[in-house]
Amino acid sequence: MGMLTGRHRMGTAAFIMAASVFLSRFMGLIRDKFISYYHGATVESDIYFASFVIPDFLNYLLAGGYFSITLIPLLAEYFEQGEEEGWRFLSATVSWVVLIAGLLTAVAWCGAPWLSGIAAPGFDAASSARLTSFIRIILPAQVFFLAGACLSGLLYMRRQFAVPALTPLVYNGCIIAGGWFMIDTGMEGFCWGVLGGAVLGSFLMPLVAVRSGGGARLSLAFRHPGVRRFLLLALPLMIGQSIVVLDEQFVRIFGSLAGDGSVSLLNYARRIMQVPVGVVAQAAGVASYPFLASLLAKRDYGAFSTTLNTALRNTMLVIVPLSLWMIVAAEPLLCLIFQQGTFGAAQTSESTPLLQVMLLAVVFWGIQQIIGRAFYAHKDTVTPAVVGSAATLLALPVYWWLGRTYGATGVALAGTLSVVLYTVLLSGVWRRRFGSTAFQGVGRLLFRSVLLSLPAMGGAWFIVGQVSAAMAQSPLWAAVVALAASGCAFGGVYMLLCRLWAPEMLAPLGSILSRLVRR
User: Is 506 inside a domain boundary?
Assistant: First the structure.
């Protein structure tokens, strides 16, 4: 248990979170591969993906995705005053979270037949009825997600990243197991897997880690002045729903209006797009946040700006070439991961442009993941919420018009434009309020990285086309060869051009790799 409760430095934490996100995304792809194999892009799979709209919105409404962010500064403050005071605050927070989440879950469970019409307005009566049953299975999971998020916040505060890194792996494993053991029930088994994964992975594992890493003194309590402070921090996140958290739900809602199978195709494409976002940007944001918060607590503003700038620059160094190569390799990626069973070549062709459009926003996902956490480190949850709400309101008619006009491709394009808008607005507010130090050199690095990637993209595109044509009779093997060959070609050309024209861009990558090798 010592390996799971040990404390970590920023570099090690970033590596742990990156590995966790990568493995979690990989398991998510296996899960979706399982779904696509047996159900493809059908009404049944559409119903399953749409069944998360209401439970996820409940989670967002209670700022579940931001619990760790809002809790870490307060936990650090109260535990600094003393262990007893820290546990009193955490106990009161958990008690209120469980009570409120439980009541809202019960209301949503009763109103599921009506809510299903909101989640998927394009479904017929039979599909809406099945959607209602799926929603009712998944809804109770939110109570365990939210309670577990409080415990994970304590682990992050202690800089114990191992168990929070493992929880999504266990969660995805339970979903796959539920679908496998209940394969004869259609997608229902996956829904039960979601509930089981929430209990085991998201709640019980952090609880055990907290107890083993220093003891847990949780009790039923509702009175503590810190709860009010936590509410004031979290309230803007509850009221202001950012486009980056609602994008997935908009894809499902507006995708249901684009025809049968559209929700599934958009979900499969988005799942792949989120791999570089999670592995690079989200991992960097999660790992850097405790250190940014600590620097602000010490009023070391110079080191804060330097750390923020380093996180942005290092993220751009990796995420730009990776996302551009994935645009070139979109079709073989989809073919290798999903094209089997019920998911055929036609579905691969339909989902390829969706993925390519979504990948255009990956760089902006990366920037907002880090800048958003910089605001939270300042204990400013209002600004991201206000900017996010404004971007969301502007995005709604765009989703509607593009979705109705261009179908699934229009929905994907609307999501990309919305994330770009939100990132630009949020970054603009940061620059006006705190200056441009954090962005120093980032724009130039982004431009040079894109410019040096263009020749690499051309070579990789040529290889993908040649391999696909030469091995048309063996699409899966063609995808493997195309991915390997195009990846090597892209990487080789890109690294060579960087060495010739921008060697300073390779220095941070070499430093990161050398540290990992030493570890």
Answer: no
